[in-house]
Design a protein that fits this description.
Helix content is about 30%, strand content about 20%. With about 170 residues, the protein is of the alpha/beta class. The protein is globular. It has four helices and seven strands. A seven-stranded mixed beta sheet has the order 3-2-4-1-5-6-7, sandwiched between helices. The two termini are about 25 Å apart. The protein has one domain (about 5-15, about 25-125, about 145-155): Rossmann fold.
């Protein structure tokens, strides 16, 4: 049976630490981060892995990454959803956000931060990874008719889409 729900977990692109007087939430992307966001989003589009719904952290670096992906996908940036839950929140709260997604959506992409992105990935996959790199995207395919029932038991497979590396 074909997986019914696809979750893409994206870590924001490489951000700048150049300005010591800028609040963490307002840190911007580096040019390398912008380049990598375009690289990964183009690869996903070529593989027909364009989500039906996109939710981003409100942090500038995550939201800018989400806008780049949305443009590449042909997705209206006006349809991007922003959730405070994706900024410095426990994995359990992010799981609640995902599980509250309407079942009319079969694919969802969320943009967040480490360590949460890696922790969420490890919540689902059998062999833990040390780190999801910036611009890294993890695609999880679940054999589940509902977001409420996705878990490690009905995970059919996962793919890593990392800058300059495909697994």
């Amino acid at each position: 049976m074909k997986p019914l729900k696809v979750l893409h977990i994206v870590r924001h692109a490489k951000s700048s630490w150049d300005y010591s007087d800028v609040a963490d939430i307002d840190r911007s992307l580096k040019s390398k981060g912008i380049k990598n966001a375009y690289e990964i989003s183009r690869k996903l589009k070529l593989k027909n892995l364009v989500p039906e719904k996109i939710i981003s952290s409100p942090a500038d670096r995550a939201l800018h990454t989400a806008v780049i992906f949305a443009r590449v996908f042909g997705y209206s940036p006006g349809n991007l959803l922003i959730s405070e839950i994706l900024y410095e929140t426990a994995t359990e709260k992010v799981l609640e956000l995902i599980k509250d997604t309407g079942d009319e959506y079969n694919s969802l992409m969320i943009f967040g931060h480490n360590p949460d992105v890696t922790a969420l990935t490890n919540h689902f996959i059998k062999t833990p990874i040390d780190n999801v790199p910036t611009s890294g995207t993890v695609t999880l395919k679940f054999n589940s008719p509902s977001w409420k029932t996705i878990d490690r038991k009905n995970l059919e497979g996962h793919t890593f889409h990392f800058p300059n590396k495909e697994e």
